[in-house]
């Protein structure tokens, strides 16, 4: 990836810390999503591996309330009764578990407003394994209506199948519409006006064979589709609206795209495409994308070898954040140090919670890093453990640290904790 690399972050920070109790340490390879965090106004909300959901006062981190979600709490967002309100009116929690529950709690009291079990639509697990459980993978809201995507996987011998549903919920929890496929959704995003919902599909191995669909939000009607056109079942890694364009990270060909109305391709860039290194063909998946105000950032993940599982090689563009302008010209790129479970964004601020690089296993890279979309790195909070979730709202940043124990060391590093601080 030719271009101008960003400089090292100038400001090392130490965010305020609050322990979250005990959790099994992560290992050398990445575990399933076990934690979630959201922040807005005077509230920081954490979701833990056992379903515990706690709303903390943002200034003191003292608990306001605690509830137990029916599933593992793997995603959180907030709702406001008024778009101009400075604080949240409700907290939405997405689950992974037997019921795949979406639940909405009052932000002041924690009282449950409503609950919806997605397993009623996508089915229940056919095997006692986390990977087979109903999973609410993404939440979006326009401040009034809530959108969600849920999926479930099953396998019987050589037959592999996904079941998935995209939902639009009205404020009282009633289902306005659903969009069902036999593919695996991985991300959803709303346009600025709340008129269209983009849905990215990661695995397409059935009748549904489009990596991106755009739905009309009032009715759920399909407006248009797009696909990288690659062989195999891998399709899209993430989607992000910016006005009337959509940025897409492609797992199919490991490239980044900017699409105009109706899916017209404005430009495409190589991110971590298949590359011959020391006799091996290596690649990395572009897992995240964020577009805002005419700029687009992509984040790549782990190195993989084309013809085998293990490799000592590393793709030169693994674990990087790279940003382009509206014409597809490179602005800056920078290392993120390890696997980024989820990208947190607000305006021109991007936060990357950096977990382990399972091939290198270097604890010195464990950190929460934040960037300015136009200029590059602005800060870093180094961790003993690994950062597995992050959120940002204005000048407030929040992250979850989990302990890690590498298989070739045997030492437990870090703790299960919430970390909160200011970007300034």
From TrEMBL:
Q: Which InterPro entries match?
A: PQQ_b-propeller_rpt (IPR018391), PQQ_rpt_dom (IPR002372), Quinoprotein_ADH-like_sf (IPR011047), WD40/YVTN_repeat-like_dom_sf (IPR015943)
Using the UniProt annotation, give all residue ranges assigned to the region (Disordered): 1-27
Basic and acidic residues bias (residue ranges): 8-27
Q: Give the Pfam families listed for this entry.
A: PQQ_2
Q: Where is the Pyrrolo-quinoline quinone repeat domain?
A: 50-242
Q: What is this protein called?
A: Pyrrolo-quinoline quinone
Q: Which organism is it from?
A: Natronorubrum sulfidifaciens JCM 14089
């Amino acid at each position: 990836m030719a271009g101008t690399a960003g400089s090292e972050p100038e400001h090392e920070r130490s965010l305020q810390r609050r322990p979250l109790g005990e959790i099994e340490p992560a290992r050398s390879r990445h575990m399933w999503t076990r934690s979630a965090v959201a922040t807005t106004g005077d509230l920081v909300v954490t979701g833990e591996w056992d379903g515990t959901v706690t709303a903390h006062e943002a200034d003191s981190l003292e608990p306001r309330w605690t509830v137990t979600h029916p599933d593992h709490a793997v995603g959180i967002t907030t709702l406001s009764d008024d778009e101009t309100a400075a604080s949240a009116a409700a907290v939405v929690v997405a689950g992974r578990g037997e019921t795949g529950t979406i639940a909405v709690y009052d932000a002041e009291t924690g009282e449950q407003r409503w609950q919806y079990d997605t397993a009623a639509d996508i089915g229940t697990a056919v095997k006692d394994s986390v990977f087979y459980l109903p999973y609410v993978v993404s939440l979006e809201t326009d401040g009034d209506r809530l959108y969600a995507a849920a999926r479930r996987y099953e396998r019987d011998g050589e037959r592999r199948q996904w079941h998935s549903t995209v939902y639009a919920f009205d404020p009282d929890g009633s289902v306005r519409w659903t969009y069902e496929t036999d593919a695996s959704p991985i991300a959803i995003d709303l346009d600025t006006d709340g008129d269209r919902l983009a849905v990215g599909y990661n695995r397409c191995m059935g009748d549904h064979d489009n990596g991106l669909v755009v739905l009309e939000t009032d009715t759920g009607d399909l407006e248009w589709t797009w696909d990288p056109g690659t062989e195999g079942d891998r399709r899209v890694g993430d989607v992000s609206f910016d006005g009337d364009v959509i940025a897409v990270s492609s797992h199919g060909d490991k490239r980044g795209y900017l699409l105009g109305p109706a899916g017209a391709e404005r430009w495409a860039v190589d991110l971590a495409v298949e590359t011959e290194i020391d006799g091996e063909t290596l690649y990395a998946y572009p897992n995240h994308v964020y577009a805002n105000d005419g700029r687009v950032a992509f984040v790549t993940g782990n190195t993989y070898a084309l013809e085998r599982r293990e490799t000592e090689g590393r793709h030169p563009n693994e674990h990087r954040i790279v940003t382009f302008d509206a014409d597809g010209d490179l602005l800056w790129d920078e290392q993120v140090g390890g696997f980024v479970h989820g990208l947190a964004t607000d305006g021109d601020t991007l936060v990357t919670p950096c977990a382990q690089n399972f091939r290198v296993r270097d604890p010195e890279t464990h950190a929460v890093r934040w960037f300015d979309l136009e200029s590059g790195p602005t800060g870093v909070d180094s961790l003993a453990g690994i950062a597995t979730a992050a959120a940002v709202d204005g000048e407030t940043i929040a992250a979850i640290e989990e302990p890690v124990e590498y298989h070739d060391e045997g030492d437990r590093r870090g703790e299960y904790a919430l970390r909160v601080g200011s970007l300034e």
